[in-house]
Every structure is written in C-alpha cells, then in structure tokens.
Amino acid sequence: MQLLASNKVFGGLHQRYSHQAESTQCEMTFAVYLPPQATAEQPVPLLYWLSGLTCSDENFMQKAGAFKVAAELGMAIVAPDTSPRGEGVADDPEGAYDLGLGAGFYINATQLPWAKHYQMYRYISEELPALLEQHFPVTQQRAIAGHSMGGHGALSIAFKNPERFSSVSAFSPICQPTTCPWGQKAFTAYLGSVQQAWQEHDSSLLIKRLTPEQHLPLLIDQGSDDSFLAEQLKSETLVDAAKQLNYAINFRMQQGYDHSYFFIASFIEDHLRFHYKYF
Amino acid sequence: MQLLASNKVFGGLHQRYSHQAESTQCEMTFAVYLPPQATAEQPVPLLYWLSGLTCSDENFMQKAGAFKVAAELGMAIVAPDTSPRGEGVADDPEGAYDLGLGAGFYINATQLPWAKHYQMYRYISEELPALLEQHFPVTQQRAIAGHSMGGHGALSIAFKNPERFSSVSAFSPICQPTTCPWGQKAFTAYLGSVQQAWQEHDSSLLIKRLTPEQHLPLLIDQGSDDSFLAEQLKSETLVDAAKQLNYAINFRMQQGYDHSYFFIASFIEDHLRFHYKYF
C-alpha cells in the first residue's frame, strides 16, 4: 500500500492509498477517514461508502460533510473508487459516463473486454475488507451505504451478504437495474444478455431471497426533485417489494431535494447515527 | 442576473448566478446560500466568503460543510468568483495558477493588460453588495471571511472598510503580500512597482491605520502543518502588528492541520458562530 495523501480533519485523519489489487488486476485507490478514537488498541467500526457514476474515492470525502459526526461517534469510513483504472483497463470507446471507467456497477464482469479488470463486486465485498481489517484500526463491525450507482452497490452487496453487515443505507439508489437504462446498458456490456446473471445484482429481486432473520436495518433517502427518479432509480420497486415481504425499511422521500451531494450532505448525519446504532 | 443552478440543502437553497458586472466589465458568477429563514419579509445577515488561488464560486460551497450551521443560525453566505473570466479577459501567458484567472487578489489593477477587467476590489466591496442587498432577502449586516488569497482579501477589505462589516475572519490568510512571492508577483503585475499602491492592500500595514474604535472582532485559524505558512502566509506579521496596537485578535494555531478544505471544514462552524455573535 502506498500513502498518497494525509490530511487532518476534525481531529482525525483523511488518507488516500493505492494498492495493487488481485481481484481487479490493477492499482486501486481508496480513501479512508480514521476518527480520533481509532488506535491499534481500540479499533473502531467501519462504514463502506460506495459512490455513484463518474465518482472516484474523492467525491464523498470532499463533499459529504460526514467527518464531524464520524469523529463524534468514533466510526471510520472508507470510500473506494468506482471502477478499475489505469493503462490497459478497458473503457467505453466513446467515453460514456455510464460505462467503463467510473462506472463499475459493483459487479464481476464476465464479458470481453471487461472481464479482466471489472471485478468490483469481489474487490468491494472481499479483497478490500480483508485489506482494511488487516492494516487499519478497524473492527469487523461493518455497515454499508452508497449513492445512486453506489446505492445499488450497497443494497445488492448487503442483500447478498447479510451476515457481513450490521446495517445498510442508500441515497437515491438505482433500485431495479435490470429494468432501467443505466443498468441495462452496464449489465449487457459486463454480463452479456443472460438474465439470470443480471438478477444476481438487482436489489428489488435480491431482497425477496432474504429470510426475515436476514432483514438488515435499512434506511433510504430519496429526493423528490431528483431528475433520475422515474426513469433510472425506480425506488417504488424496492419499497413495494419490501412491503410484500413485511420488511420494515425506512424509506424517506425528501421533498425538494435533488440528486447532488448537497442532498447527501443534508442527511448524511442521520445515516451515520443510524449505522452507529446497529454496530 | 441569470440563475445557473439551484439546489435545496439543509432546508435552504444553494444557488449560482451570473451577471454582467460594471466594475470588471465581464460576466461574473457567484454562489449564494439562503437559509430557510430568509424571506423578503425577514431578510437575514450575510457572510461574504472570499476563496483562494485557483478557486471559483464552487469550492467553498461544495467542500466547507457550512450549511448546517448557517441554516441553524439563519445566515446567508455568498461566495464570489476569484477573478474576472471569459473571452477577452487577460490571463498569465504561461497559465500560472497564481496570476490572472483564478488569482484576482481582490485589488483594482492599474497596469496593462490587467486594468480593464481585474477590478475585484471594487466588485467585492461595492458592486456585489449593492446587487445582493437589492435582489436577495439579506440585510445590511455584513461579515467577511476568506481562505489564503481570500483571507488576504477579507482582512484587507475589512481593514479598508471597517464601517461596512461587523466582524472579519480568515483561514490561513496571506498576511503580508508585499513581502511574499505570491503577493509580490501579483502586485507587480497588477499595480506596477509603486510601493505606495502595494501598501493599500497589505493587511499587516493596513491594520496600523485603524483607530481603536475601528478594531473589528477578528478571528484567524492557521494550520501548523500548512506548507505555505513560512514563505507565503507569514501570520506572525499580522499577529505582531496587532499586539503592538493592542488589537485583541483571536489567532489560533491549529496543530497538525494543513492548507486544505479539510482544515476549513473542521473549524468553519466556529467562524459562523463568531460572526453571528456580532451581527
């Protein structure tokens, strides 16, 4: 691991690291916030934050305003990158923002030219936690959250691994990628046209496989003025599925808010306190 | 005025506007935060935030994490751009980050090719306040703050116009531009080599002209690990001058903090509460 940057913030440390990842076969960058309480003798719980399309490890750390409360509670936060990167990593030939670099969709690609590096599901759910729990003062108490494509990532990874997390939350998540343009484009490219493979990463379907004992505490915030809501995010699909399952999720439609980090900053405190309660 | 963007945040509104400015003879962009309390019937006090080198109206608004407390207190914040911009606006031929675009230094240029558009002192101290107080729900209660080059701007504008502000604060300000490389380069270009013109914009000199009645409440935060401290910022010059004048400034050396917005975010709440106290 190589330390790229270190900044003191709210008494703790924001740090950026790069490392050679086995799963994605390239150098990956992540950022971590370590609150002042975190020491080798007293490790702290860790929130995984998965960002949306076009983001890197930097957006959440710079824009969410999460550190004050994380420092108060004593919780670490990690923000991984949203795709593999670097020379030799495939990208959309036209540089589309919703495919290739910055658009890994937190799945393991099976199709060429993506399969070699686009193994973000394995990176986020296995390799990165192992690395962090070995090298940083964090416990195995894990929560997961994300925004938009990263909200899809947080929900789908939590639903596939409910034993690994104590709670899950999302802002403006893509709730049914198998039926929205962003998801269909990415899944077709990365997974081919096999519907069964798609269903392995669709939160509105995955939720139905959970037993009542696997129902993690779940908080979702969605802006009512989010221009992607109707076509891409489709939060009603997840809300309806949860209702049928008697899964008591906390879905909040926030009046007048949009898809931006201004929305995330307004409610991130609620998410941190929510996760902290279940550690 | 043209509305470029509007985002709901912490119950208030973040908005970006552009307008044709008389002082700088070009289209200027600024961002404003209006807290939920602000209405035409109940205008609120306004904090001017002046940003540092390379910044636009966006950096503070996206990275400082100031809105929660501004919304709680009921204060508006405006973040102007740091220079004129657009076609025909002179820039450093080599694209230096510390001269030309993004580096207006909050002074009125007298030298070619800068004089036509680089009139940031007049824009910030006269034209923008008049515009804001006419078109937005803000009172004439004004405070001013800034970072680095913008810290220089806040201090020097407040010292030259103590009757216009109720308080002033800065993060990592350039305290003596007449003796540091950033200031000498910019002042030589914009003002020529006339030392008298330089002294009109050097806070460590301007402070000596103030009568005790003109000593505004003044808070400065400086990071001890700021790599620009010794060569460019020279905070001891201002601290020493204040001491000689019995000007009771609150200067805080914050151990381990650097020059970044992570530092600003860590202490912006203190600055907002400080200014609010004196409105």
UniProtKB/TrEMBL annotation, chains A, B:
Gene3D superfamilies: alpha/beta hydrolase. This is S-formylglutathione hydrolase. Keywords: Hydrolase, Serine esterase. NCBIfam families: fghA_ester_D. Serine hydrolase involved in the detoxification of formaldehyde. One of its GO terms (molecular function) is S-formylglutathione hydrolase activity. The keyword Cell wall biogenesis/degradation does not apply. Belongs to the esterase D family. Its EC number is 3.1.2.12. The keyword Ligase does not apply. PANTHER family: S-FORMYLGLUTATHIONE HYDROLASE (PTHR10061), S-FORMYLGLUTATHIONE HYDROLASE YEIG (PTHR10061:SF1). It catalyses: S-formylglutathione + H2O = formate + glutathione + H(+). Pfam families: Esterase. It comes from the Bacteria.
